[in-house]
Prior knowledge:
With about 200 residues, the chain is of the alpha+beta class. The protein folds into three domains: about 60 residues, CATH 2.40.50.140; about 70 residues, 5' to 3' exonuclease, C-terminal subdomain (DNA polymerase, domain 1), CATH 1.10.150.20; about 50 residues, Helicase, Ruva Protein, domain 3. The protein is built from nine helices and five strands; from the N terminus they run E-E-E-H-E-E-H-H-H-H-H-H-H-H. The protein has a five-stranded mixed β-barrel. Helix 8 packs across helix 9. It is globular, with a radius of gyration of 17 Å. About 5% of the residues have low confidence. Keywords: ATP-binding, Cytoplasm, DNA damage, DNA recombination, DNA repair, DNA-binding, Helicase, Hydrolase, Nucleotide-binding. InterPro entries: DNA_helicase_Holl-junc_RuvA_I (IPR013849), Hlx-hairpin-Hlx_DNA-bd_motif (IPR003583), NA-bd_OB-fold (IPR012340), RuvA (IPR000085), RuvA_2-like (IPR010994), RuvA_C (IPR011114), RuvA_C_sf (IPR036267).
Amino acid sequence: MISSLRGRVLSVGLDHAVVEVGGVGFAVQATPSTLATLRRGEEITLATAMVVREDSLTLFGFPDADGRDLFNQLLTVSGIGPRLALAMLAVLEPDKLRTALAGGEISVLTQVPGIGRKGAERLVIELRDKVGRPAVTDGGPVGPDTEQVRAQVGEALLGLGFPAKQAEQAVATVLADSPGLDTSAVLRRALALLGRKR
Length: 198
């Protein structure tokens, strides 16, 4: 199995990136927040999970081993395939997802498109004791640089094909409502906002 990739980013699409490793381009499926951090031509390292089907071999990429491990745990639940597991990680940060699973927070889990109440209950029953709670760090987190977040999210939205003006307005709205969010959280909320307008 391929558990990580280190190489140069050849291209970034809506739902995947192509990473060149030793002259071979690997297509890697990933969440929008992960894709937003990738730049064409940059050297990157991704933790990966390989899903083998009769007719395909698909690589899923994550910024770190924590995301990959949680993805693999989600796949052990009946009815949860790789696309739905990736959608869960796109909507909920790994720490938030762990907290929801460990605390039985059904309403948080049902925010994910494709997860109904029964599916959320099954996730909680099967994973509550396996995922553990996220680690609590000493001292509060340092807030991200708003201008840097604004620029990164704006660039990611442009890369996903949204018009510049719409992208700027969505980012501004999210930051006005919830200042201090990190890049991935702002991107998720901006995408949700833009999705409602389409």
